[in-house]
Design a protein that fits this description.
There is one protein chain. The protein is of the alpha/beta class. The protein folds into two domains: about 10-60, no CATH class; about 65-255, Rossmann fold, CATH 3.40.50.150. It is built from ten helices and ten strands. The protein has helices at about 10-20, 35-40, 65-75, 85-90, 105-115, 125-140, 145-150, 160-165, 205-215, 230-235, and strands spanning about 45-50, 50-55, 60, 95-100, 120-125, 155-160, 175-180, 215-225, 240, 245-255. Strands 6-5-4-7-8-10-9 form a seven-stranded mixed sheet. A three-stranded antiparallel sheet has the order 1-2-3. A hairpin with a 5-residue loop joins β9 (about 240) and β10 (about 245-255). α3 (about 65-75) runs parallel beside α5 (about 105-115), α5 (about 105-115) packs across α7 and α8 runs parallel beside α9 (about 205-215). The N and C termini lie far apart (about 45 Å). The model has no long low-confidence stretch (mean pLDDT about 90). Bound molecules: S-adenosylmethionine (SAM).
Length: about 260
C-alpha cells in the first residue's frame, strides 16, 4: 500500500512518521484524495495535518481522537466507577501493560487513574495504527491540561504483544491487559470501525495469557463480548459485566509465587 501525505519533504516529524508507519511519501500538489489514490495506485492515503495524521481508506477516516476515553475519564473525575478500572482493581502509581493499544482509549483511562507516578505501556502490532495514534497524541491540539497530560504519558511501541511479553522480566507490571478484536464484532461499535481494516484480527493465544501471568504482579484482564466462548478457551473463570451489557472483562488473579 502506498500512502501519501501532505507536508514539507525533509520535515523531520513527517519523515519520522513515514519511517515508523512504513509508508512512502509523495507531495500532495493540491490533488484530491481520490486522484492521489488513482495516480499512486494506493489503497489508502495519509494526509499529514497540523493537528496530526489522517488516514483515508475504504471510505473511512482514521485519526487519533480521545473520544470515548475522554468521556470515561470525565465520569471518573465525577466519582463514577469504570468497569475496566474495577476489573483491574487499578490504583494510583501502578504500572500497566496494554497489549492491544488500538486507538488508546483504554490506555488513556488507565493513564489518568495511575497518574504521573504510574506507567502505561501500549503495544500495537499494526504499524499504521501505532504511528497514527503516537503522532495524533503528540499533535493533539485541544482539551484540558489533565487530558493532555494523561495522553502524553502513554508510551507506545509497535510490536506483537507475545514478543514483548516474552522479553519482559517476571512481575514487571501490575496489570497486563488485552482487548483483542472480538471474535464476533459488535457492528454498532462506531468507535473502532476505522480501526477494523488496519487491525490484527488474530485470536488471543494461550501462550500470551501464560506469559502475561508471568509478567503481571496482580491481574491479567481480558475484554471480550459478554458470553464469549473465548473466556472458557483461555481458562478464565471470573468474568465481570462491562459498561454495556454486551461487554465483559475476564480476570485472572496472579497467585503469589
Ligand atoms: C479492539 S482494538 C483495542 C482497542 C483499545 N483497547 C482502545 O481502547 O482503543 C484491538 C487492537 O489490538 C491490536 N492487536 C491485536 N493483536 C495484537 C498483537 N498480537 N500484538 C499487538 N497488538 C495487537 C489490533 O491491531 C487492534 O488495533
Amino acid at each position: 500500500m502506498t500512502e501519501t501525505r501532505k507536508g514539507i519533504p525533509g520535515d523531520p516529524e513527517l519523515m519520522q512518521f513515514a519511517a515508523e508507519s512504513g509508508v512512502s511519501y509523495t507531495p500532495r500538489r493540491d490533488r484530491s484524495i481520490t486522484r492521489i489514490m488513482a495516480e499512486e495506485g494506493a489503497a489508502g492515503v495519509i494526509i499529514w495535518k497540523q493537528e496530526g495524521p489522517v488516514l483515508y481508506q475504504g471510505g473511512e477516516r482514521f485519526f487519533y481522537h480521545p473520544s470515548m476515553g475522554k468521556n470515561r475519564v470525565s465520569r471518573i473525575r465525577k466519582g463514577q466507577s469504570d468497569p475496566m478500572i474495577e476489573a483491574m482493581g487499578l490504583r494510583k502509581g501502578w504500572e500497566v501493560l496494554d497489549c492491544t493499544l488500538g486507538l488508546g482509549a483504554d490506555a488513556l483511562v488507565v493513564s489518568f487513574v495511575v497518574g504521573d507516578e504510574g506507567r502505561v505501556l501500549g503495544v500495537e502490532s499494526s504499524p499504521i495504527t501505532a504511528a497514527v495514534v503516537r503522532w495524533g497524541i503528540k499533535k493533539y491540539p485541544r482539551g484540558p491540561v489533565w487530558l493532555k497530560a494523561a495522553m502524553d504519558r502513554i508510551e507506545i511501541i509497535c510490536a506483537d504483544h507475545l514478543e514483548v511479553l516474552k522479553e519482559l522480566p517476571a512481575r514487571s507490571f501490575d496489570i497486563v491487559y488485552f482487548d483483542p478484536m472480538f471474535r464476533h464484532p459488535i457492528n454498532s461499535s462506531q468507535a473502532i470501525s476505522p480501526l477494523r481494516q488496519l487491525a490484527n484480527h488474530r485470536p488471543l493465544s494461550e501462550e500470551a495469557i501464560a506469559e502475561a501471568l508471568r509478567v503481571s504482579r496482580s491481574r491479567v484482564v481480558v475484554k471480550e463480548r459478554a458470553g464469549s466462548t473465548e473466556f472458557e478457551r483461555l481458562g478464565i473463570q471470573q468474568v465481570l459485566t462491562g459498561e454495556h451489557r454486551d461487554i465483559a472483562y475476564g480476570i485472572i488473579e496472579v497467585r503469589p509465587s
